[in-house]
Amino acid sequence: MSDILLRNLRPMGGPVVDMRVQDGRITAIAPALATDGLPVEDCAGAIGVSGLVEAHTHLDKTLMGMGWYANAVGTDLHSMIDNERTERHRLGLDPHRQSMRHALALVAAGCTHIRTHVDIDTDHGLAMLDGVLATRAALAQEVMIEIVAFPQSGLLVRPGTLELLDHALAQGADLVGGLDPAGMDRDPKGHLDAVFALAEKHCKGVDIHLHEAGTLGAFSLELIMDRTRALGMQGKVAVSHAFCLGMNDWHATEALIEELAACDIAILTTGAPSREVPQVKRLRAAGVRLGAGCDGVRDTWSPLNRADMIDRARIIAMRNNLRSDTDLAMALDICSTGGAQVMGLQGYGLDVGCAADLTLLAGETLAEAALSDAPRPLVLKSGRITARAGKSMREAP
Fold first, then answer.
1. Is domain 4-50+349-390 classified as CATH 2.30.40.10?
2. The listed CATH number (3.40.50.1010, 1.10.357.10, 3.20.20.140, 3.40.50.11440) that belongs to domain 52-343
3. pLDDT tens per residue, range 213-259
4. CA-CA distance, 58 to 291, in Å (whole number)?
């Protein structure tokens, strides 16, 4: 159903109005709209926000529904990567089934758009991509899924990976990913040259994981900015995590943030409590596009994350010491409008003419809604109800 009349809705926590949706788009917002024969949904005064955007996750990794995974690896990055590559075979992980479970959990929690990184490596080839492509097709009416072809195990250090990334982009991946150019491949110039060459060849965007901290991360970030300028890719590059922006040298960090804004390079944060993270208020004040994500959920790396962008807004607020109502509303905005800006979504918003992608939230104000554990009352994608009372309308496999 893409035609509906929403009664008693409070867009962005404002006064109660009705919203008419026709052909999947918002056509009118006003009190006491005529039904014009449309089916009516009473929103009972719930807050309506633009659909939540999960802008950094890994749909291919989750073990949701597969029972408890006993993690014996710890927190070393290389060990976690190697362990996951091996465990996928042992556990018989089906990337289509698992990505369906993860994506539908996000839909139930209010997401209408997802950017997911999908592992491309020489052990599994394009199997992970094939599974997530199948999920994207199956859930086309429930959620928009954007795919980053991601060399999780390294690019240059594993011969054959570059060619697989090339194939992944040709077969439907939307962006090319990268990972710690110095720390993983030990060849930052070679790594970034390869990533940006693929992006240029396929006319795709770039989204690079940058866990490298301090001055090493700053060095890699500067190289990313150099290539963005040289290739005219402003607005087409994102850096995920960017832990180096959380270092204590504020003068160095301020200069990096100003240059990120000048290059229109977006930052995607998880607000990771265990790491120094970019300060969201500083990024926003500088005009840097900023989105957020839950990262991996219930995978071999960690059991801690939840597939819930409201929960992520709370984590970002805690990590950034956001307490005022204005700041809490900003944390919510990062998890919706912020992610949409990073993904370059067109027709996103709650204005007449926008796609009817919206999430209803419980609470008196946006600040309360940003912290509420209450199930999302209703979720719509292009006017079609995709979740109700915290449950997806489609059952997960």
1. yes
2. 3.20.20.140
3. 999 999 999 999 999 999 999 999 999 999 999 998 888 999 999 99
4. 15
